[in-house]
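Complex record, six chains
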Amino acid sequence: MGAKGSQTKAMIRTEAYKLFAEKGFKEVTMKDICESTGLSRGGLYRHYAGTQEIFSEILSEEYSIADRIERHESAKTILEDMLQAIEKEIMEKEFSLSLAIYEYASMGNEDFFIRIHEKAKKRWIHLIQYGIETKEFQETDPDRVSDLILYYYQGLRMWSRVIPFDNRTAKYYAESVRQMLYL
Amino acid sequence: MGAKGSQTKAMIRTEAYKLFAEKGFKEVTMKDICESTGLSRGGLYRHYAGTQEIFSEILSEEYSIADRIERHESAKTILEDMLQAIEKEIMEKEFSLSLAIYEYASMGNEDFFIRIHEKAKKRWIHLIQYGIETKEFQETDPDRVSDLILYYYQGLRMWSRVIPFDNRTAKYYAESVRQMLYL
Amino acid sequence: MGAKGSQTKAMIRTEAYKLFAEKGFKEVTMKDICESTGLSRGGLYRHYAGTQEIFSEILSEEYSIADRIERHESAKTILEDMLQAIEKEIMEKEFSLSLAIYEYASMGNEDFFIRIHEKAKKRWIHLIQYGIETKEFQETDPDRVSDLILYYYQGLRMWSRVIPFDNRTAKYYAESVRQMLYL
Amino acid sequence: MGAKGSQTKAMIRTEAYKLFAEKGFKEVTMKDICESTGLSRGGLYRHYAGTQEIFSEILSEEYSIADRIERHESAKTILEDMLQAIEKEIMEKEFSLSLAIYEYASMGNEDFFIRIHEKAKKRWIHLIQYGIETKEFQETDPDRVSDLILYYYQGLRMWSRVIPFDNRTAKYYAESVRQMLYL
DNA sequence: TATGAATGAGTCTTCATTCAT
DNA sequence: AATGAATGAAGACTCATTCAT
């Protein structure tokens, strides 16, 4: 695969991302992607064998970005950075793959998401424990609180597609997390 | 519509429910429902014009049940009843329409769900305010806390389809809500 | 078949007539007729085995009426009566079965229409010959002129469904026929 | 669309023409056309979205041919050419789209035919006026006579599908028109 | 006679996928 | 690499027709 090929693949992913964000996973067809990219049937199939393959590459990209979050000094700084990132994501619902991810996961691709979820949970547990150690956070059960933080976030993320949010809703999230953690 | 007709319709809904719970909304076809019910194509269409119609009748049933929750004496009793109902629902994921509902809502049927959500939120706000008045609950912001309770629940409900929960996860929910509210 | 039965049949024909006039023969379904008459599927089938059967009975009625035209004294009087009847029919296009008849005839029922046409032609030839004898009409070829009169009429009748006529068009018909025949 | 594509489209039109001529518009299905052309369902739909689309392209071809009739020197020559073309068409009923056109027009596509009819009428009126000027034709009302010529032709054309014509019938048409026009 | 539930065949339409070019 | 024609399977939907009641 030469340089041109990987450029085309990247372009396909970019276009497909928009479609998945808009319509979820199940409703996007190879035909749709042909039309968005301007490629012919055969041309598209040369790069990707189906929507699953495209979507799973998009996800890998997504989550490798999610992993890139770096560590700062204080637990508080890290927390505030994370909250800010989440708030932004919730409000930019037009770019959210939440429906697509959920559909995809429900179609027999649970494993990938279990792994993602476990990773995310570990990160939160880590952070909470660290904050407790540095006396920045309350003494709480890190396992329980990370569950709350994660599923609350998932709930928000999902329904932001459906329910028109004012930014109060996103603010509440940050506030609730702070109340759970800060002294 | 005679007795036989409405029996058949009820049977169709029962079978369709299982399919929607299993595969979500988009993936269920009229053909699937034919096969599950043992009806012919024409026979099914005599009763329902499409999956949308069946699903929306199932939802109406569902939510009219959800509305039937009555009021008890103390805020605490009501809360515990609600938590128990939720816990049960999360663990019985095979009966959950969550994916189907989410897909259906995302397909241009937002209004119905906004209304449902508003109703549920009002119910929680009411309960929280009532608990504060009776000195059973802490002084909190009912709006914010009800958001947390609702979206956390939605997140759990959704991902319970995908992530294998131990009952710790459901217990955490109840515990977190209690911590947010009780003195 | 009791009195009630033949009443129901007559009612079915009346309703079906409207449908055939509106949509032609091919497009009318037994279901349509059920709905128009308010009868159930089984109820309708008890009386008629299909749209063909209904339509052919309607036609028999139609043409037995057409045959009922009586003879008057002078050729001129008879001609004027015929022209008037035709003019009326052309303008009342909403009651015209022309499309339905044409479709029906083209579906393997030619014989019936050939007979009808031959009868009509004979009638005109007769009239023209009679008029020539009584010196009311010009000496023309009755065979040729009756063709003109009949097919011109058919053309008008058909396209009156499609092309919006002013009554000039119908008047022209009468005028042309008069020019062909009168001295 | 490459050369192969437009060849296939032409082939589809050719085959569809035969079917429309044989069965009218309403009775021809995409499946029929698949079978005639030897194309698969998807293959056919790649070129045409439905019978309407195919038929309307066939009509455009038809009538663009009809428009191609050129002007000659004398009114008489032109008239005789026209009559000959018409006579030929009437006798070649197996190639006549008359039923199909009539059905199609009656299904809400009146406009197209009104325009066609108006054009044809204008052409006849022109010719008649020209013939009167050149003293080749009698002084008649061009409007009225063109109506006669056109609707007589339509009537003939239609019923030639149903009634077995001897060529006398077609000859009569020409003769009648001549009698109406020539001195 | 009449009802309306049910059947099954038929048509429409869309897609994933393949393949010759 | 890319095109776009073609396939065939799948699903939606409609109807004529039958049958138990």
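Note: The domain at 63-181 of chain B is CATH 1.10.357.10 (Tetracycline Repressor; domain 2).
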